[in-house]
């Protein structure tokens, strides 16, 4: 099992130099991943927020081994072709350490609504699926075109490619007991189920894993990403918390 830190890049974490500093400290003491949320507007308190790609670029330049990425990017409120450029640029800058977490984006009333963008979950889900198909096509470095309900691309070719092959890993985030995010995750490289203000139990994880595995068609490695917390000053207690998840196959 690998261990990562997930931070909301608000307040003091909205400073790219500070993010870079604490990411290096995390790497130095043995963490495997450093992830930040991706928001334009999280709530009406209007606190400082960093652009994730600028923040992660600073992190990439100040670290050498630790995995970095967004947890998660709301693909429906970003242009997929711009994301293709940003993610590949970060992957090359980091030496192939990028993980791309994706989802619908929450809370829609602020992250979308303040800017007059689409809040309907069904439409955002359609745009997420189309956006992922476009990203996968553009990341290939081959000529690619796309005709969807929400996006259309003439035949183009995006170079350079990312360092990672066959692609930058895509981890899909979603509500833990909804089947649509699970089926979406089964098409990609990992699943990050979310249970609002609660921690998923190992038994709940078993249900999730069974469902996702039923819908997977690939035998490639797949990451199961658990959101939780361990004490920083009690290794025995931390190991006790983690062990049941490790035993059932959670990878992060």
Give a description of the structure.
With 252 residues, the chain is α/β, with parallel strands linked by helices. It has one domain: TIM Barrel (Alpha-Beta Barrel), CATH 3.20.20. The protein is built from 8 helices and 9 strands. A 7-stranded parallel β-sheet has the order 1-2-3-4-7-8-9. Helix 2 (52-61) packs parallel to helix 3 (80-93). The radius of gyration is 18 Å and the shape is globular.
Number of domains: 1
CATH class: Alpha Beta
Distance between the termini: 5 Å
Major sheet description: 7 strands, parallel
Strand element count:
9
Shape: globular
Low-confidence runs (pLDDT<50, min 5 residues)? Answer: none
Rg estimate, integer Å: 18 Å
Counted by DSSP, the helix tally is: 8
Strands ordered across the widest β-sheet? 1-2-3-4-7-8-9
Q: Which class best fits the helix and strand makeup?
A: alpha/beta
Order of helical and strand elements: EHEHEHEHHEEEHEHEH
CATH architecture assignment name: Alpha-Beta Barrel
Q: Please give the share of residues in helix.
A: 25-40%
Q: Provide mean pLDDT, rounded.
A: 96
Q: What fold name goes in the CATH topology slot? A: TIM Barrel
CATH H-level superfamily title: Luciferase-like domain
Strand content: 15-25%
């Amino acid at each position: 099992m690998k261990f990562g830190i997930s931070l909301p890049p608000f307040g003091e974490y909205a400073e790219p130099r500070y993010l870079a500093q604490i990411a290096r400290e995390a790497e130095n003491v043995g963490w495997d991943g450093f992830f930040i949320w991706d928001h334009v507007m999280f709530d009406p308190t209007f606190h400082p927020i960093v652009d994730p790609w600028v923040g992660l670029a600073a992190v990439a330049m100040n670290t050498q081994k630790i995995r970095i990425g967004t947890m998660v990017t709301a693909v429906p409120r970003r242009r997929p072709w711009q994301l293709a450029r940003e993610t590949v640029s970060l992957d090359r800058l980091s030496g192939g350490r990028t993980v791309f977490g994706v989802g619908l984006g929450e809370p829609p009333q602020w992250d979308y609504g303040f800017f007059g963008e689409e809040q309907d979950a069904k439409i955002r889900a359609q745009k997420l699926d189309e956006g992922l198909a476009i990203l996968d096509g553009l990341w290939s470095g081959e000529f690619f075109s796309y005709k969807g309900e929400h996006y259309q691309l003439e035949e183009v070719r995006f170079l350079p490619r990312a360092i990672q092959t066959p692609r930058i890993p895509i981890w899909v985030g979603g509500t833990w007991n909804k089947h649509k995010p699970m089926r979406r995750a089964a098409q990609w490289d990992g699943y990050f189920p979310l249970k609002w203000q609660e921690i998923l139990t190992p038994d709940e994880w078993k249900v999730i894993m069974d469902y996702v595995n039923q819908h997977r068609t690939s035998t490639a490695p797949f990451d199961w990403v658990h959101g939780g917390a361990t004490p920083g000053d009690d290794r025995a207690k931390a190991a006790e918390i983690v062990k049941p998840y490790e035993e059932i196959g959670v990878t992060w």
